[in-house]
Structure formats: C-alpha cells, structure tokens
From TrEMBL, chain A:
Protein name: Branched-chain amino acid ABC transporter permease
Subcellular location(s) per record: Cell membrane
UniProt organism field: Bradyrhizobium guangdongense
GO cellular component term, pick one: plasma membrane
Membrane association type: Multi-pass membrane protein
Annotated gene: livM
Keywords: Cell membrane, Membrane, Plasmid, Transmembrane, Transmembrane helix
UniProtKB/TrEMBL annotation, chain B:
All copies of domain ABC transporter, residue ranges: 5-234
Family: Belongs to the ABC transporter superfamily.
Keyword Nucleotide-binding included in the entry's annotation: yes
Name recorded for this polypeptide: ABC transporter ATP-binding protein
One Gene Ontology term from the biological process aspect of the record: L-amino acid transport
One Gene Ontology MF term: ATP hydrolysis activity
Annotated keywords: Amino-acid transport, ATP-binding, Nucleotide-binding, Transport
Function: Involved in beta-(1-->2)glucan export. Transmembrane domains (TMD) form a pore in the inner membrane and the ATP-binding domain (NBD) is responsible for energy generation.
InterPro entries attached to this UniProt entry: AAA+_ATPase (IPR003593), ABC_transporter-like_ATP-bd (IPR003439), ABC_transporter-like_CS (IPR017871), BCAA_Transport_ATP-bd_LivF (IPR052156), P-loop_NTPase (IPR027417)
Length: 339, 235
C-alpha cells in the first residue's frame, strides 16, 4: 500500500487581506456600479443630494446583505440601527463634538452595541419568529424615540446641531457636493471592509451557517457567537449610514427608525440580489431613483409604480438584477469572442 | 490501552416519546475502530447523534478522552476532537471545495487541505468547484476530507459508502485504510455493507431496537454467520 506523504500546509488559514480583497468572484456588475458611482459626481448637476441619498441607502443595504444575504439572519427591522446611528451622531454633534468622522464612529458604535444586545435575543430563534422579533424591537425603539422628546425631539425630529468641516477643511455645502464625496468615500471604505469580510475564512463560515447551521456546529463552529458578531457588525454599518444621513441633512426624524425604511431596504436587496454585495449598489440605485422619479411624475400614486417594479423584478429576475446583468455581460462577451 | 470514548448506560432520544437508544454501553480504546451494525431503524444513527450531542440524553454518561461530554454543546465536542461525517454528507453548496475544507480546518495535527487533496486527488482537480456542482462520490470524499482537516481524535462515519458506485467505494475504502495507517485515528463506522465494515474495524457491536445485543471483535463476528443472520439479517 502506498504510504501517504503529508506535506507542510500550503493551504489558506492565513489568507491575507490582499487575497480576501482580490478579484474573487468579481463580476461585470461590480465594475459597472463602481464606475457609475465615481463618474456620477461629474454628471449629477442638481442631483448631488439625491446621489447622496442613493449612497446612504447603498450602505444600509450593504449592511443588511451581510446579515440576510451572507448569514441567513432574517430581519425586517434593520432601520432601527440606521436610526440609532443617526440619533447618536446628531446627539454627539449637539452635545460633545461637531467633528464628522468622530460622529460616524459614534453612530456606528452605538448601533453596533444595540445590535449586540438585541442580537442576544433575536439570534436565539430562526425564521418567522426572528422576523417578528426584529419588527417588534423596531416598534419599541420607534415608540421610545417618539415619546422621549427631550432627547430625540419626538415627532418634530432632532435638529439644530452643527457639523464641522471634514478634516477641518471641507464644509458641507448647500448643493451637496461635499456630502456626495464624503458619503462615497465612506461607501468605498465600508465596501472594502465588507468584501474582505465575506472573502475571509470568517465569511466562509457565515455562508456555511446560512447553508446549514447544524452542520457548522458539528465542525466545531460556535454558531451563536459568529452570528452575534456579524449581526453587530451589520448593525454598526447601518449605524454609519444613519450617521451620514444625520450629518448631511442636519435633521434626524423618527421615520429613520420606521418599519417602512426596513421594508424599503429589503426591497432594494431583492431588486439588486442578495449575498453578492453589489446587489446593494444596483438595488439602491434603482430603488431611490425610481422612487424619486415616480413621486415626481405622480405624487399620489407613486407607490403603485414602486409595487409594480417589485413585482416585475421578482417575476423576471428572482435572484435580483445583479446576476442577470452578469449573465447578459457574459453572453455579450461570448458573442464578441466568437469569430 | 486507555479508552478514548466511553458510554455508560446511555439512554437518549428526540424530545418526548420512546428512546432512540436505550441503556447503551461501549468503550473504544484510542487507536481502535468500531463497526456499528444492525437493521434499518434500530438506532445506529441515533447512537452517533447522541455521541455528537444532537439528541436529548435522558440518562447515562459519555466520556471522551477522560472528560465528561454529555452536557456540552455539539460545537464544543467537535472542538475536543470528535469528527463527524453525516449520512447526508451535508456539503455547503455555496462554498467551493477548498472553502468547504477551510471552514473546518483546525491546525492541531497532520491533516490539512493539501494532505486531503493528496488523499483525494479528484478533490484537488475540483478545488474551485462549488459544493452543489460535485458528484455524490466527490461530495462524500469532501465530507470525509472536511472531517479530517479538523484533525479529530475520533472520526465518526455514518454510512459513508451508501449510494456510491463500486469504483468510488473502492477509493473511499482505500482512503480509510490509509487514514488509519498514517494517522492512527480512532473511528466509528456505521455501515450496511457488513463485510466491508467488519474488514475495516477491530471491534463491532450490533444494535436492535436501540439496545446493544452483541458486542465483540469484528473478526469473531465475521465468522459468526448465525449472529449475523439473526441480528443483522445477513444470510
């Protein structure tokens, strides 16, 4: 019988950052959405504020994708982290320091901490019960924000805080140019972080948990701890999105905690495609721009059009638009290669 | 030789109702191997599930490497050195072969991803393929490889040859022999191919209705046609 020769490990336990961030599973849609995001700055004209809203929603959708798309955590209350990040950043600017980058960190930490605490409860269950719990937590926090007027401003919202220039140089202007670039830089950072995360061994573990959590336990993975970690990270990123929103708009309203926002961000992911990061880009862009245009065309019935869009998206691209773009791109490339 | 695994009067099941295994006792010395035999539905998989902490234990004691493990979580048992290859293989479909291996890897022994690829060259060729793009035989190789890279002290295999083509079964049998020879790994094998199971193991036990009805050397059982006929249904 042949003797098995065991060689020293050449495998991937120490996957470096470059490997995790490399071209792993990059598709055509990745390049497309980044090009759009960068060049949009020069072509947006009067729509920089809308562009900023798109980017904020993309960050929020990215955070939800880490929870739902990569880890199988079902949530319909993700806006609560967005709102907490927004309130934390606004209160920090109002009472402590108006420097925006520190405010981002504060918003992220506050939401991440809340994600950690609520995750201890939410992650004990799965499926519909989990969804209901996330909705319930969102409803409780919304009620607290509405009634605790001395801190949150209640239904009037929290306003009157100043945000200092970024790095002491770049002030937020009326036209939203600085806000657009600021939020785009944060998006680039968050995207890089998320990409490293999902292509690291930790990311593989998350996908394994999503596929079969029981099997992952049998392999020695503390599933509950891993899920709690990604849920907290996801919440922190949602909080960063909320903090940007608070900083660039100068107002935090209770609708930043609403079920409607949670539902909207889930729709963005459904449109763009879950578990692929770029789905957040595609879904965020389509959703926010479509909503804006639909509301401009018919302010009373625009939700009807939005519903129609969702039905069409689910009917014709059940995995989201992202994979469809990849397939179309692959088809076109194949046609070009043929003699 | 010290016992690596010891079960004392273990009764366990799935929630309320009848126990799946009842008053089971066994001891498995380090470096040994055990075939668990019996007809369908007698509790073979439930016995393995109980060792892994996937059932509710009503009574008894399970000791692994000298420590009581009856009350600890499944993932902690795996971390202590219990490797489990389930009957359904349960490959992660959204991960590649290499990623399936890397999520299980624990650097505490001689097995790593490259040595698994040496053991199963077919997996090396498929290292970038997703789990759901593998054949049944390749999935089984991956399931075994994934258990190996955690460098378990005890490898538990639940019907690893079920539904596989004879040529794949031969490859897996060869691999198991090499694993034993090279790693001195202890293992438990649940298998319907009785001759195969007995040829690969030192000890054997037969379960019937959740209870151990025969326990002894595999060689002795292989020559005892009457026991095999009456308790396992082999003519």
């Amino acid at each position: 019988m042949a003797v098995l020769k065991v060689t020293p490990s050449k495998d991937t336990p120490k996957r470096d950052i470059a490997a995790s961030f490399g071209s792993h599973r990059l598709g055509l849609s990745d390049a497309l959405v980044w090009a759009l995001a960068i060049f949009a700055y020069f072509f947006l004209g009067a729509y920089h504020q809308l562009g900023t809203q798109v980017i904020i929603m993309i960050i929020l959708a990215l955070s939800l994708d880490l929870a739902i798309g990569y880890s199988g955590i079902e949530s319909l209350g993700h806006a609560v982290f967005f709102g907490i990040g927004a309130y934390a950043a606004a209160l920090f600017a109002l009472n402590v320091l108006s420097e925006p980058l520190t405010g981002l960190v504060v918003g992220g930490l506050a939401a991440g901490a809340f994600g950690f605490v609520t995750g201890l409860l939410v992650l004990r269950v799965r499926g519909l019960t989990q969804v209901i719990l996330t909705i319930a937590i969102g409803a409780v926090v919304l009620q607290v924000a509405t009634t605790w007027k001395s801190v949150t401003g209640g239904d009037d919202g929290l306003a009157g805080y100043q945000v200092a220039p970024i790095l002491g140089r770049y002030s937020f202007d009326l036209y939203g140019h600085t806000a657009y670039l600021y939020s785009l830089c944060v998006l680039a950072f968050v995207f890089a972080l998320a990409r490293i995360l999902v292509n690291s061994p930790f990311g593989y573990v998350l996908r394994g948990i999503r596929d079969n959590d029981q099997r992952m336990r049998m392999l020695g993975v503390p599933v509950a701890a891993r899920l709690l970690l990604i849920y907290s990270i996801s919440a922190a990123i949602a909080g960063v999105a909320g903090a940007i929103s608070a900083q660039v708009t100068g107002l935090v309203a209770t609708d930043s905690l609403s079920f409607l926002l949670s539902g909207n961000v889930l729709i963005m992911l459904l449109i763009g495609g879950m578990g692929r990061l770029t789905g957040a880009f595609i879904g965020g862009i389509i959703f926010v721009i479509f909503s804006d245009r639909a509301a401009a065309i018919d302010p009373f019935n625009w939700l009807f059009m939005l519903g129609g869009l969702l039905i069409l998206a689910v009917r014709f691209t059940p995995q989201g638009v992202g994979p469809w773009i990849d397939r179309m791109g692959g088809y076109l490339l194949d046609r070009r290669r043929k003699p | 030789m010290t016992d690596l695994l010891r079960l004392e009067a273990v009764t366990a099941g799935y929630g309320y109702g009848a126990a799946a295994i009842e008053n089971v006792a066994l001891s498995l010395p380090r470096g040994s191997s055990l075939a668990v035999l019996g007809r369908n539905g007698v509790g073979k998989t439930s016995l393995l599930a109980t060792i892994m902490g996937l059932t509710q234990m009503a009574s008894g004691k399970i000791t692994f490497d000298g420590g009581e493990i009856g009350g600890i979580d499944t993932y902690e048992r795996a971390r202590l050195g219990l490797g489990y290859v389930p009957q359904e293989r349960e490959i992660f479909p959204s991960l590649t072969v290499e990623e399936n291996l890397s999520v299980a890897r624990v650097d505490r022994g001689k097995w790593n991803i490259e040595s698994v690829f040496e053991l199963f060259p077919r997996l090396a060729e498929r290292r970038q393929n997703f789990g759901n793009h593998l054949s049944g035989g390749e999935q089984q190789m991956l399931a075994v490889g994934r258990a190996l890279v955690s460098n378990p002290a005890l490898l538990i295999l639940d019907e690893p040859f079920e539904g596989l083509a004879p040529v794949i079964v031969d490859q897996l049998v060869e691999a198991l022999k090499r694993i034993r020879k090279e790693s001195d790994m202890t293992f438990i094998l649940v298998e319907h191919h009785v001759d195969l199971a007995l040829s690969l193991t030192v000890q054997a036990l037969i379960l019937d209705r959740g209870q151990v009805v025969w326990n002894g050397k595999s060689n002795d059982l292989a020559g005892n046609k009457s026991v095999l006929s009456s308790l396992v249904g082999i003519s």
